[in-house]
Design brief:
Length: 197
């Protein structure tokens, strides 16, 4: 009887190890392989040359008066100036024509084309800062301008960020023991700075 039990246990151990090995092989087959998407190093001069090249491609399209491109790593944004009296559908057609002109270019294939005069003016300022050796400052200034346009101005006295004594108002409704207990917890949580205010 003991030998049958020992054989049965050995069979269970052997079959358990075999199943475990198959599970690890299946797990390796399920791995997803992705392309390395890290930006390759592109120096400032090369970025400037690519920007000029993309702007020239855009300016070759009829009805594009001026074009500006900004290239950062693999990202390229091309802003185009067109005549102000065009219909919206014509603007879309011109943007499409500019995108088509860049489709086969290795640097312009993934470029973003915009025809908004405000964005194009901002791209001009960023490109100028890039050319003057201040790429980070140019981008940060433009992000600040964009944020300033989006965020409303609100007087500071309308919305008080942290009202003084906000937690003290509801404390008056508590009984004496609960109030004392709460004050001790608040003082401890503030690292004993609560009473110093």
């Amino acid at each position: 009887m003991k030998s049958i039990a020992a054989i049965f246990i050995l069979i269970l151990l052997a079959s358990g190890c075999g199943t475990r090995e198959d599970a690890s092989q299946n797990r390796q087959d399920d791995l997803v392989k992705v392309k390395n998407s890290a930006f390759e190093h592109v120096d400032r001069e090369e970025s400037e040359n690519i920007s000029n090249h993309l702007a020239e491609l855009a300016e070759r399209v009829p009805q594009v008066e001026n074009a500006t491109a900004v290239v950062i790593g693999n990202l390229a944004v091309v802003g185009i100036d067109i005549k102000a009296n065009l219909e919206r559908s014509e603007v879309g057609t011109i943007k499409y024509a500019v995108a088509e002109s860049m489709k086969d270019d290795p640097y312009g294939a993934e470029a973003i084309v915009v025809a908004d005069p405000d964005i194009t003016a901002r791209l001009d300022e960023i490109a100028e800062d890039f050319n003057n050796g201040r790429p980070l400052q140019g981008i940060m200034n433009e992000l600040a301008d964009i944020t300033g346009r989006i965020m409303p101005e609100v007087p500071a006295d309308i919305i008080e960020p942290n009202p003084k004594n906000a937690t003290e108002q509801n404390k008056e409704q508590l009984e004496t023991d609960e109030k004392r207990n709460l004050e001790q917890k608040q003082d401890k949580q503030s690292n004993y700075h609560k009473d110093k205010e």
